[in-house]
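Changelog excerpt

This revision adds worked examples to the README so contributors can see how folded entries look when concatenated. The first example is reproduced verbatim below.
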Amino acid sequence: MFPAVPEGLFILTAIRDHYFPASFGQRLPGGQGAPVEVTADSNLFAELRMRRMGAITGRVLDESGIGLPDVPVVAYRARLPLRIAARGVSDDRGVFRVHGLDPGKYWVRSGPQTLDDGTGLLPVFSPEAGETRDARIYPVAVDTETPDADLHAVPGALHRLTVGVQCQPLGAPAAVFLSSETGGQRANTACGESHVFQGLAPAAYEVYGEKQDLSEFGFFEMFVARDELSIVIMAPPPRVNIAFEGIAGPIEPRSSVSLLARRQDLAETGTDREVKWPQAMLAPGHWEFSARTGPGEYVESIASAQGGARRTLRRDRPVDRFDVFIEARQQLGIKVVVSDKAGHVGGSVRSDAKPVPGIPVFLWPVAEQGRRSLRGQLQTLSDVNGQYRFDGLPPGDYRVLATFDLSEADEESMDVARAPVVHVDASQSTNADLVPWSAPY
């Protein structure tokens, strides 16, 4: 019960672990609720039905069709670059259940495992694929389990990687992190010592090290195809000089621009942190940068000031951030190109000639460069008069959609909704009036 609620428009939502949020007026579990108007005479009784998140189930089987226990299983959204969505492990029957999944399409993959007899099992996409192009896609829906995502184990040689830790003073506490597309491991160690990571499948790996007091860091990448010995060399974090440029050349740093960055290894994504300029201290490795700007601006690019493509074991770039590799050296630069010629999109959302207040409006940049500039899709709510507006847009094409039936948009949902395409010119405003879309399911 909510006593003494002030007058206005409100969204009523219930939240519980392992369930989708449920809102008053919500048509679909993945959608959003309709606003409730509260007046001095309001007396609303609302019943909210919550639905479980999706799951994928299956078995890990040997060549004889017998279930294998204790094999790690990973689910990825069926898109590149690979990002782990959830994990599971097979039970004594070889049965696994990966839960807590949003609706969508997924790939399922086993992790490396060493059996009791010493036999190694290589990672494999369901049902028995080495690459995503040959992997089966499993659709996940609300309140359901997607069954029969069986994995047929492939025997193969697993390897050891011995990582030596070089830092000072000897014996100082340190940690080493090993990551691959199937997961990550952490080992506590010390300067001058080493740690052995065992049971590694042939694959690309990243090794990141840090002293416990966070005064020194190290990083390297390698492809493991046999037993290896490598050394992670710790050093103080590099000094990163951040320079701003306009489309026509250098400009003064913009107080309206906030830079955000997060570490991204092969297994996990870190949390965003604000990067102070003109100089910052960042640990070596792969980082994903984004920015917030003023309403008349947008960030064209964020890249290493040294320029040139860096050879990397990673095959795919993020499509909603700018990827920057921080070299393990004392000083380097990052160039941020800012344009003050941003465009705008706005309009009204109406149904039966009446304004629709509080409806989510989604904006999807058609070009990957636009999605990097804007950190993916944008979302806003129409106001009490049904009006909406998006500022700070790079010139280009966008798809616009107003609906209560989605919580986020992507290319597939825009295609299903047949969302119109609008073109934005530099420093210009584009009008796009919308009619609410209802999902057909």
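The second example, added in the same revision:
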Amino acid sequence: MAKLFLGDKHADHSPRLLQLLGAIEGGLVGLLSGLSRLFSPDLASSAGRRLMRRLGPRLYKTRHIRRNLNNAFPEKNAADIDELVRDIWGNLGSIIAEYPHLGTICHREAEQRLDVVMRGEPQVFRKTGKPAVFVSAHLANWELAAGALVHLGIPLTGPYTRLQNPYMDRMLYRARQSLGCGMVERDGAGRKLMSCLQQGTSVGLLVDQRVDSGEPVPFFGRDMLTTITPARLALRFDCELIPVQVQRLKGARFRIIFHPAVKADDETADKDSKALQMTRKINTLFEAWIRERPQEWICTNRRWPKDRQKPELMNCNEG
């Protein structure tokens, strides 16, 4: 995450500087985390939002946010994009400040802080013993989807990616433990997730980011390399594929929406075709969620090729 300051190219070629900045970044986030513990979840969330609304737009990753927004919302002018950039950084600041409070939000004060909405009748909540594959996007505070499921009594395991910054990695790992779900490293996670499903444990995945090994699936009218692993897992183990939407209400209060299970349109198709059909539906659903609340979309990583940008907006307030 130190690449927020240097940028990918310079950070990769400056290992000592990257290590130094990683320590500084870890110290700053650790300080923010420590201060957040002194406040209530709502006050911590608000303070993190105000801080990152001011600091975030100056960081390198703002370039990726702006490019993604230009691609997703070509109808918006430069001023609209600038305001969304500030809002997105503000939401990320809230998320960082909420990490020390994940256990409080998801468990100790769940009844006051989580508004759970069920759309459809997922089998997994009927205690049939059959697990499900849950998918979500980087919206609002996506970490809470896992915590909410555990609070509802659903055993869950999900993959996580180790951060390059070891200081940040340790802090986030400890914070995520309070969610109560199982965690497996993303590298080589496939077999472990299949084992979980075989044993009746549901799995959860975040699937709105570009995956180089994925399939081209439309997202905001452009093909984005997208993983079809969730759909394949659901088909292989005859599980429901359930999208989970997280919305921020006010402060550290959220709505968790469990949408109806996604199914293939053509039940006579082969499994690969079914997986693609289901993944297209997921991307379409994510797109609708983002259009509804673009300020809650954490899009600090590039989603589409660079040549897809809208040039007339790319030079506005880049720094």
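Reviewer comment on example two: The chain has one domain: 3-304. The CA atoms of residues 110 and 161 lie 26 Å apart.
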